[in-house]
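Q: Structure tokens for this one, please.
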Amino acid sequence: MMLTRRAIAKAGRFLATLAFSLTIFAASPNRFVTPAAASEIKVVVNGQPITSYDFQRRNAFFKLARKPGGAAAVKAELIDEALQAAEMKRLGIRISDKAVAEAYARFASQNKLSTKQLDQIMNQSGVTPQHFKGYIRAQMGWNQALSAKFRSEGLMKEQDAVKKMLGDGGKKPTATEYMLQQVVFVVPAKERKGKIGARKREAEAFRQRYQGCASSREFAKGLVDVTVRDLGRLLAPELPPEWEKDVKATQPGKATPVRETEKGVEFLGICSTREVSDDKVAQLVFSNDGKTDDRATELSKKYTEELRAKANIEER
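A: Here is the predicted structure, written as tokens:
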């Protein structure tokens, strides 16, 4: 999970550059790029077409974000995104429209803009809100794919961790281990708009009465569409980034604040915590120590190259 946090931080630095460009562009409100009336297929990646319209939008995005590389870099990035999108689909990674809209709104808010103002800038620059949201969706999904890949490949080998530990005088690092329980107030996607507010109030009421993992199932018995699931033990470096802060701030026997998710409304119960020190902890801590940014970039490049080597790419 550390990879995801680092990757997001790196993306944040790029978006900060974009944000600076937005402030300059906003000072020229009369600039407007008219979308092309028609588009043609330029590249086909595993049967997925990339059109001249896509190229135009991404080229405008490069200019707005002050990204170097020109037409060749635009084409390479669009092909990479098509490869990554296919891999996300294979892995079952789906970023909801709501999550994308929230990220878009946060980006606007962080730059002291309303979403309407950001829409206007995206339209005036020729990027369009739809294209930028597509870019956001791609980044969010690829970060999840990278995180899964990192968990399977990225950990330092156990023998290397032991070697490093011996080099540090034989002292094993420690980490907090959390026993977690997930409580979900399910909201079907088609009913979300009308029910999410009520379900959030129900979840908050349950959370206020939460007295620990042992009694939660009994409390949930009389409730409709509520699931309680034991997540088992997770070390601090393994916590999902979106939950990490809340989990660490919550005392054992209590529950995190509620939050909306794709499933509905949920919170995590902290069953217990303890400090542990073993070879697995050493692997996690040492793997996350040092040049994680570089390793994240290298893994993304390697992963994408593997996808490209197996792909059918037809340029027209």
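A few notes: Strands lie at 41-45, 48-51, 175-186, 226-235, 259-260, 264-276, 313-315. The longest strand covers residues 264-276.
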